[in-house]
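Propose amino acids for all 159 sites.
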């Protein structure tokens, strides 16, 4: 079988971009079991409840749901187990320092295969207040309406 090239998206956490202000992003490798990789290759995963915790100098991904592999036997994995993230020491120290200082949290944004290896995009994020969410939604809607108006104007259709 030919080696995979490029990036193949498995799961995306759209809720994280809605609930948090994203400050910085990192790409991390994942330590996975065989049946987890097979389940991911089927495109089955959920990042909705996921978060990253740094414990004794190691980054761990919690709450990510990778369902059991359908053809797996007794060697199948637990669906919501914690998984170790592979990051450089400098990155782990920087993330830990910023989380402790500024009260930020670390959330997963996307899970994908990059050149055949499972990767997760994690982000340092700060929680949005409910009025922030409403303001962002209103701004997005206003931008959409102006783009539609410009598009209609360019096509010759007047309001």
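Proposal:
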């Amino acid at each position: 079988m030919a080696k995979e090239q490029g990036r193949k998206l498995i799961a995306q956490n759209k809720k994280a971009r809605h609930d948090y202000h994203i400050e910085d992003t990192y790409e991390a490798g994942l330590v996975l079991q065989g049946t987890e990789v097979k389940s991911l290759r089927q495109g089955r995963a959920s990042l909705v409840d996921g978060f990253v915790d740094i414990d004794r100098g190691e980054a761990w991904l919690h709450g990510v749901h990778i369902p059991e592999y359908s053809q797996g036997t007794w060697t199948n994995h637990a669906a919501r187990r914690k998984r170790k993230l592979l990051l450089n020491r400098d990155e782990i120290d920087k993330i830990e320092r910023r989380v402790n200082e500024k009260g930020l949290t670390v959330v997963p944004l996307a899970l994908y295969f990059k050149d055949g290896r499972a990767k997760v995009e994690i982000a340092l994020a700060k929680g949005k207040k409910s009025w922030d969410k409403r303001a962002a939604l209103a701004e997005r809607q206003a931008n959409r309406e102006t783009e539609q108006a410009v598009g209609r104007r360019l096509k010759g259709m007047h309001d």
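The first strand starts at residue 7 and ends at 12. DSSP finds four helices and seven strands in the chain.
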